[in-house]
Inverse folding.
């Protein structure tokens, strides 16, 4: 079935780095833009980043710009989020999510979500 | 950046009642690129509505979305027990694709 599975979360010290992965299955991964969205404990959803279907376009929230890098490997059906210079305020569940539009004809809403991976940044 | 403000923060209702949730944008949302999501405790969000008024696959028709420009509404016609959750709006046009702060619908 169509699914996204995140991995790579854990406890990390402030200032260090961590890389999250999101494995896609059940659909043609290379045809869809994909996003990272995070949720701090007890808080709302925060959009983090998006990458186009072919990896040519990337956009970030101001809160992570310059520290986080989104990338993808379409041959491996995997999305990544490289997180550097981590801060306590980056502590959250990180979700990957698929855009509901094939290709880049127009933006899409997020129709398929993973179960999330928890990142805890200790100070 | 488009800021989305949801109201009310919490809605206390009973099963069978109707619910009206509001999402107001700080500037016009282009092409009605506005979505609504439902999130239950311990679960990932679920897409309910996209394009301001189109129901996602499998979403019951008691959920409906409306609005344009800067004012959007999610209506739940008759609340069922499984509808008690937190609801978020999101604009997904040009980046950053911000979320509202959420409305909790509680019994």
């Amino acid at each position: 079935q169509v699914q996204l599975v995140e991995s790579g979360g854990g406890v990390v010290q402030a200032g260090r780095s961590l890389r999250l992965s999101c494995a896609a299955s059940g659909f043609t991964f290379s045809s869809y833009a994909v996003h990272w969205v995070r949720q701090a404990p007890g808080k709302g959803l925060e959009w983090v980043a998006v990458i186009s279907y072919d990896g040519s376009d990337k956009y970030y929230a101001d809160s992570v710009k310059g520290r986080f890098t989104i990338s993808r490997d379409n041959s491996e059906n995997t999305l990544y989020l490289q997180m550097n210079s981590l801060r306590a305020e980056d502590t959250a569940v990180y979700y990957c999510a698929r855009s509901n539009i094939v290709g880049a004809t127009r933006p899409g809403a997020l129709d398929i979500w993973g179960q999330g991976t928890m990142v805890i940044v200790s100070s | 950046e488009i800021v989305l403000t949801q109201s009310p923060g919490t809605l206390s209702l009973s099963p069978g009642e109707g619910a009206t949730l509001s999402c107001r944008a700080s500037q016009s949302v282009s092409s009605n690129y506005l979505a609504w999501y439902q999130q239950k405790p311990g679960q990932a969000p679920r897409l309910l509505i996209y394009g301001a008024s189109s129901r996602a696959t499998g979403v019951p028709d008691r959920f409906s979305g409306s609005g344009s420009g800067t004012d959007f509404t999610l209506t739940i016609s008759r609340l069922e027990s499984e509808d008690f959750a937190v609801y978020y709006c999101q604009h997904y046009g040009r980046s950053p694709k911000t979320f509202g702060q959420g409305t909790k619908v509680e019994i």
